[in-house]
Amino acid sequence: MSNSQPSATSQPKLLDQVRDRLRVKHYSKRTEAAYVQWIKRYIFFHDKRHPLEMGKVEVESFLTSLAVERNVSASTQSQALSAILFLYKEVLEQPLPWLDEVTRAKKPARLPTVLTRDEVGRLLKYVDDPLMDLVVRLLYGTGMRLLECLRLRVKDVDFARHEIVVREGKGAKDRVTMLPATLADRLKVHLVQVKAQHVADLAMGKGEVWLPDALAVKYPNAGKTWAWQYVFPAAGFSTDPRSGAVRRHHIDEKRVQRAVRRAAERAELAKPVSPHTLRHSFATHLLEGGYDIRTVQELLGHSDVSTTMIYTHVLNKGGRGVVSPLDR
């Protein structure tokens, strides 16, 4: 690599360049924050040397330190590597002939935690907050990821077709899942309350939500329309860290995570339970019900059916798929 460093007076600071490039590439705010932190830690780990002075040896020593000294998971180490590679490829525009030689952590293969139908019923029984109860039931009833659910807009719920359109899911893909019939009326009542709040916000000169990508420029008034409002808006307003605009965001995912954790404790479930466990349970229970794996794949939004196949392993583990020789 070249040892020449960019002039501090001619270009923005390195981390500002990273942020700008991430935004040009439409990375999420979460990914931006994570990548900037990893790049900063990488630089500080090597005594603030400029990345142009470093290469394969420095990257591997940093990743090794994470694994050995910090004992981070394989997925965390992979995220750190992705951030560093983004820095070299996208920001510094450096060739990476050593990329294939970098040792990558392998994520251990683990079966997902799945609740039985009885355990799901017990969990739902102990979600005492009505709003959280609606969110949790929607997670189990649709198979959505937590943030996919919280980012739903009013326009994405089709009561006539009993469908929910999941926009920009994992891999930036749209997909369609079902709207559970048992939740339709509750969701309608909830949206009546949300609309009343939105009307009140508009009366105060607010009522605008964040719009993805360049939609805010192309349709400057769309952010205040009812169709674009969040199905699950936050109780108060917050300041957008990028634009400084004061808006009503969707509810914080930590609120749902806490509600599920408390319900699992009260239900005395002897399994680690999170909102994502409901997605695993959704898929497994559909397969148990006789639905084919391709249908489940589409509902979950998996690119490859091999990802969905893990739920067949859950179905077949233990005594469910094989009779013990002791019982013969």
UniProtKB/TrEMBL annotation:
Protein name, UniProt field: Integron integrase
GO terms under biological process: DNA integration; DNA recombination
Membership in a protein family: Belongs to the 'phage' integrase family.
Task of the protein: Site-specific tyrosine recombinase, which acts by catalyzing the cutting and rejoining of the recombining DNA molecules. The XerC-XerD complex is essential to convert dimers of the bacterial chromosome into monomers to permit their segregation at cell division. It also contributes to the segregational stability of plasmids.
Domain Tyr recombinase: 110-324
Gene3D superfamilies the record matches: 1.10.150.130, Intergrase catalytic core (1.10.443.10)
Keyword Cytoplasm found: yes
Core-binding (CB) domain mapped to chain residues: 9-92
InterPro entries linked: CB, DNA_brk_join_enz, Integrase-like_cat_sf, Integrase_catalytic, Integrase_integron-type, Integrase_recombinase_N, Integrase_SAM-like_N, Tyrosine_recombinase_XerCD
Subcellular location: Cytoplasm
UniProt keyword annotation of Zinc present: no
One GO location term (cellular component): cytoplasm
Pfam family for this entry, one: Phage_int_SAM_4
UniProt GO MF annotations: DNA binding
PANTHER family in the record: PHAGE INTEGRASE-RELATED, PROPHAGE INTEGRASE INTD-RELATED
Oligomeric form and interacting partners: Forms a cyclic heterotetrameric complex composed of two molecules of XerC and two molecules of XerD.
Keywords, alphabetical: Cytoplasm, DNA integration, DNA recombination, DNA-binding
